[in-house]
Amino acid sequence: MPRETTTTPEVRPARFTARTRLTLVTSGLILAMGTAMVVLISIMIRYLPSYNFGTVTTSPLSTTGQATLVPVPGATLPTTAPAPAGVAVAIGEVSSPEDLFRAALVIGITALVLLGALGIFLSYVMAGRILRPLRDLDRAASRAAAGELSHRLAPTGARDEFTGLATTFDTMLERLEQTFAAHERFAANASHELRTPLGTTALLLDVARDGNVDPETAALLDKLAVTNTRNLIIVDALLDLATIGANPPGHEETNLADIATQVLAEQAEAAANRGIDMRPDLGSAPLRGDKVLLSRLTDNLVRNAIRHGDAGGWLSVGTTMLPDASALLRVENSGEELAPEQITRLTEPFFRVRARLAEPVASVGSGSDNQRPADTHGLGLALVDAIVTAHHGSLVLEPGRAGGLRVTVTIPSSGGVFTEEARASISR
Fold it and tell me: What are 286-337's pLDDT values in tens digits?
């Protein structure tokens, strides 16, 4: 998935495409060889032969189609010779080496221009055919960068440099797909295995706290319950990551403006407790996607902005529709300035700019009437990244105008299909 950071890219001068450069090179070679040929022929005509010219005229009174030769002084030529009518008009009268040189030069330059234009056209067409495998490889690499590893080039035809490169690229994609699938299965299986003992531990701690225990034991049980709850949150988040990556998103009509309105209403109390001024600018942003996942994405971004923003600061949430029919969501807050290397790593699982919060904070889960703990495990933006990738969108992280962070999510107007089991897992 394409993602920008604060690193300013190096500005390079505009360059022609490879197809244009190849066209210019081949056309330049054709023109250079043609020019050399014209110059060589002109030199041979002008300096090497020895000519003896007669003046060719066409008698306007002749009805036999014969041309009358008027010899120059000292020349020995027949008095008549056949010549097509109009030659002197079309080409010009050739009566000396200079005239022949001039005629050859005009004809040569004309032919060179015509051949050059034809050469440029043919070079451009052939360059496109030659470079077509590279364009296919570029599109496949872009899809792989967006997380789509199942696409294959499957080259056909005789093996050459391009088919060899395409075959190697397909092999790399296959191994990457197998590796990521194995990691996702491991994370899902491990999460399932860990949830059962952690759930049992939570039940035992609840039973123990309901019994008659002394204050010190009760305090210890409370700390153990907090730690166990945090572990459950992490396991659930890991399972969410694995589930999102293994299933395509839903394909239902929704609107990012409606989702953001609901999330802001749910988080209004949390923002008020920190004195954060919420500044919504919600334009219509309809799209087809998984509403549960998009609600989770928006909820994570808003809660992160509230939790990590400055107390007494502000939070801006905007939605709009882009000219290409993509839906855009932008969340920005005021807060501490972040270094470029920190912003680059924000979507890494378990990465935190600041230390872990002391305890989970109760928060309303988006898209559900149930209470769910806030993400304090360093997986919030990793989940956002996974949801955006599942919807074939882009995530841009950059510094805010007043410190803090500005997050821009762009999602195409259509998505895939998401299974009910995966949707239920995400909405826990």
Answer: 998 888 889 989 998 999 899 888 889 999 999 999 998 899 999 999 988 8
- Of 246, 278, 308, the residue at which a domain comes to its end is 246
- Pull the structure tokens for residue 117: 């234009």
Instruction: Please state which of the ranges 87-101, 140-154, 176-190, 240-254 shows the lowest mean pLDDT.
Output: 87-101
Cα 194 to Cα 407: distance, rounded to the nearest angstrom: 33
Residue 4, domain member (yes or no):
no
The CATH number of residue 240's host domain is 1.10.287.130
Q: What is the DSSP string of 127-193?
A: HHHHHHHHHHHHHHHHHHHTT---------SS--HHHHHHHHHHHHHHHHHHHHHHHHHHHHHHHHH
The verdict on 408 and 266 lying in the same domain is yes
- Tell me the sheet residues that pair with 105: none
The closest of 180, 143, 179 to 392, measured between CA atoms, is 143
Indicate if 52 and 103 belong to the same structural domain: yes
Half-sphere exposure of 164 (CA within 13 A, CB side): 3
80: left (phi over 0), alpha (psi -120 to 50) or beta: beta
Segment 268-286, tens digit of pLDDT: 999 999 999 999 999 999 9
Across 190-313, the runs of DSSP E, i.e. the strands, are: 252-255, 277-282, 286-289
pLDDT band at 114 (very low <50, low <70, confident <90, very high): confident
Find the length of the chain: 428
Please say whether the beta carbons of 270 and 363 come within 8 A: yes
Q: pTM of the prediction?
A: 0.54
Assess whether 111 and 88 both reside in one domain. yes
Phi, psi angle pair for 314, to nearest 5°: -140, 160
Domain assignment present for 13: no
